[in-house]
Amino acid sequence: MRMRKVMAAALTGLALIGLAGTATASASGSGDLVWPPKDVTPVHKTKAELQKQADAFTAQQQRTYPRAFRGAQNVSSGNWGGEAEGVFDDMQYMGNTVSFTYKGQNVTTYTQVNAPGQHTLSPKEYCEQLATCTGQVSDHRGGLTVFAKNEQFGITSARNFRRNGEVVWVQAWTQGIDAQLAALASDRAYTFTR
What we know:
The chain has 194 residues and is an alpha+beta fold. It has 4 helices and 7 strands; from the N terminus they run ααβββαββββα. The protein has helices at residues 2-21, 47-68, 123-129, 178-185, and strands at residues 73-77, 93-102, 105-114, 132-138, 144-150, 155-161, 167-172. It has a 7-stranded antiparallel sheet, with helices on both faces. The chain is globular. 37% of the residues are buried. Mean pLDDT is 87; it is low at 1-30.
């Protein structure tokens, strides 16, 4: 049974990597994803509940980064928080950095997990108002991952819009890792709804 789950996860990851590498859909379109989704359920958690969730996010990063970035070493997750480190009651998003060595270079990513309803811009509005989008791909659960680049700061990102109203994004200051960013952003372990 465990082997079946591992194989399913591996195939899903490979599919995302393959799709992300060929994402050629309209950079400003939103596929069939309606935004904001209907029936978004707000999430309100205590500081203790959010800290437990942040700890689970960190554990997931420690498990998945060496797989997403094959051969990554020295994976180090920063503390989760908002504008500053730490969580607080009723927080609606959490972010952190992860640093590691990949293919001989130091890489840092930033992940942000937004609760349902926190991210109000649709994929199309995000691309028109805030980002230079380079492509998009549907994920395996009915969501949409939008790829963007910020040439000025050398940032690439993958932003996963989910049907429950959550948006999870991962960005890096390293080029050529779009597929890995998409796999991480679409990982449903990063959620406010558990």
